[in-house]
Amino acid sequence: MSATAKIALRGVTKSFGPKKVLQGIDLDVAPGESMVVIGGSGTGKSVLLKCILGLMTPDRGSISVDGEETVGFNDRSRARVMRKFGMLFQGGALFDSLRVWENVAFGPIQSDGMKAEEAREVAVAKLGAVGLGPEIGELFPSELSGGMQKRVALARAIAREPEIIFFDEPTTGLDPIMADVINDLIVKCVSDLGATAVSITHDMASARKIGHRIGMLYEGRLIWQGPVADIDRSGNAHVDQFIHGRAEGPIQMQVRKL
Amino acid sequence: MNIPLLTVLGRMFLAFLQATGAVTAFAFHAVRQAVQPPYYRRQIVSQILEIGYYSLPVVGLTAIFTGMVLALQSYTGFARFSAESAIPNVVVVSLTRELGPVLASLMVAGRIGAAIAAEIGTMRVTEQIDALTTLSTDPFKYLVAPRLIAGIVTLPILVFVADIIGILGGFLVGVYKLDFNDAAYLRNTIDFLQFQDVFSGLVKAAVFGFLITLMGCYHGYTSKGGAQGVGMATTNAVVSASILIFTFNYFITEAFFAR
After folding, report:
1. Helix, strand or coil for residue A115?
2. CB of A75 within 8 A of CB of A19?
3. What is the residue range of A119's domain?
4. Which of A53, A96, A110 sits opposite B134 (nearest CB)?
5. Structure confidence by residue, pLDDT tens digits, A190-249
6. Strand A164-168 vs strand A85-88: parallel, antiparallel, or unpaired?
7. ipTM of the shown complex
8. Model-level pTM?
9. A38 shares its domain with A65
10. What is the CATH number of the domain that holds A220?
C-alpha cells in the first residue's frame, strides 16, 4: 500500500452468487485528490463504493482508510471511520419524513450530539453553501425539484465537514445546466473542505469537471486509470469507446437484434 | 422436468428453516440494540403515538362489536339450557383472555405491521437506510428498536382499553336488548373476573406487540427491488404477524391455563 494513500484497495473481490462483480480491484486515492470511477451500467461501480463505505463486505481483499484496515471492523470501529465519510446518494436518499433542515442537521444532531438550535444554524449555512435559502429548510423533500434535492443531499453530505466524500452518480436524472451547477458545487465544496473525493459516474462531462484522476471499471476490473488530461489519449480501446459513447467497439452490449 | 415430491418438500423445509434462522438472528440483534444506548426517545414517543393512540378508534370499534356479538350469540346458545345468567361471565372471560388480545393485535397487525413494512421497505429501496449508516446512525437503533419498544409498551394498554370497551359492548346488549338487570350484570362480571384472566391477556398483548413490530421491521428491512418488493414486504409482514399471533396465542394460553 502507498504510504500516502487516504484510501487504498488491494485485490478487492465481490460476487453475488455466480456473478463476479468485482474481480481484484487495486486503487489508491491520495489525500485531497478527487478520483472518478467511470464505467457502464452494471459494471460494479456502486458495489465498489459500497465496499469502501462498509455498506457491503468484500469477499476478499483489503480496504484501508488512513492506513487502517476497515474490512472486518466491528460496529464501533465502523462508526468511528464513518465519521470521516460523507456520501451523496444517486437518488438523494433524503429522509422524507423530516424537513430539509432536519435532513441536513441529522448527522450533527444524531451522531455528534449537537443541540438542535446550533445544528439548525449549521444546516442553514450548508444550504447557503449549495445556493439554497433558509426558507427551503422548512420544506419537505417531496416539495423540491430533482436538482434541489441533489443540492440538499450535497449539503447533508458536507454538514459534518467530512474528510472523504463519496458521490454516487451525482448528475444522473438532471438536465445539462443543473448537472453543471451540481458539478460546480461539488468542486467548490470539496475544495473548500480540502476533502478527498471518490465519485462514480457514467457522465463524462461530470467526470472531466470534478475529477483529478479517472479510472475505468469494466467487467469487475479497473482496466485503466490516470489523470483526467490523459483520458483522451489512454491508448485503451475500451476507454475510447466509452468516453466517445460509441456503440461499436470492444464493449458489446447484451442486446437482441431487432 | 419431473421433480420428486420429497425434493420439493425438502426444499420447502430448508427454506422454512433458513427464514426462521434469519428472523431469529434479526430479532436477537434488534433486541440487543434496543437495550443498549443511545436511545432515540423522540422516535420512541412518536411510535407509541402512532401504534397506540392512532390505533384506538379501530381497536375500540372492533372491541365493542365483538362484545356485543358475543353477548348476543351466547344468549342464543345458553337460552336453550336456561343458562342466560352465565352470559356476563362468558363475555368477560372470552374478551380478557382471548378475543381482546387476539382481535386487537390482528387489527394492529393490519394497520401498523403493514405501515412499518412499507415505511422501512421504502427507506431500504431508496437508500435511506444506507444514508443513516453513512451518517453514523445505526438503523437498528434508530428505526427498529423504537418500534419494538413501542409495540411491547402500547399493545397491553390498547388491549386493556379493548377489554373495557368490549365488556361495555356486552353490557349494552345484555341490559338494553336482553333485559338483564344492569347491577346484576355488572356484579356477575366483576365476581367472575380473576386477575389472571386480565394478566394473561396483557402478557399476550406484549408478546403480540413485539411480533407485529418485529415482522414489520424484518420484512421492510430485507425488502428488495422497487415498488413490487415493498408491496411484497407489506403483505408478508401482515400474514406472518397474523400466523405468529395465533401460534403464540396457543403456547401462552397453554403456559397460563393448562392443567
Report:
1. coil
2. no
3. 85-161
4. A53
5. 898 899 999 999 889 999 999 999 999 998 999 999 999 999 888 889 899 988 888 888
6. parallel
7. 0.87
8. 0.87
9. yes
10. 3.40.50.300
